[in-house]
């Protein structure tokens, strides 16, 4: 629990610097290699080798605590638009706990029946996630929710062949890769630039944009008024 707590706390300080995508990848690699270490050390069946397996379990806990522990709670809320955010968060939370329950229930049975093969199975599962994350998980660090909407709008248009050069579009692995490329190519935008880009891509109508801007300016004015009163 000490290792778990330490690395879970570390995630608070690195998640906005390293980024979600890198942490997903690093965590998956760390977890997979930890499982490889565990099953490799269990194959000989000796007490000395088993100590290496214990090390692998601790490195797994550290990798999980710093990456896959916090990210599934944050990432779904970021990549879903306001219209589906609540339902998507409910679905992700539900699936998270269901798979936790599944792992807790099947792991003792797997260890009893296939021994070190259990950890080989989990190593393969982690390896299977690497291409999924690499090709379909766009980076969202230091992005506002409005910018993330633009990332998906750009990725959608590029994936359909409505943006970018033809030779660039041919390089897309599939549509998910378009979102990853869009996140990498879209510069960080100010509020005014976000509004202009949203209008250009048809995400916001002119009247809606003006109303939103008026509300934002009113909110800023109210805050300044509170500060002046203080």
SSE map:
Elements: H1 2-18, H2 20-42, H3 47-68, H4 71-79, H5 82-114, H6 117-136, H7 145-159, H8 166-169, H9 175-185, H10 191-200, H11 206-229
Helix pairs in contact: 1-3, 2-3, 2-6, 4-5, 7-9
What keyword list fits this structure?
disordered C terminus, mainly alpha, 230 residues
Describe this structure in words.
This protein is mainly alpha-helical. It is 82% helix and 0% strand. The protein is built from 11 helices and no strands. The longest helix has 33 residues, at 82-114. The protein is elongated and about 70 Å long.
Summarize this structure briefly:
This protein is mainly α and 230 residues long. It has helices at 2-18, 20-42, 47-68, 71-79, 82-114, 117-136, 145-159, 166-169, 175-185, 191-200, 206-229.
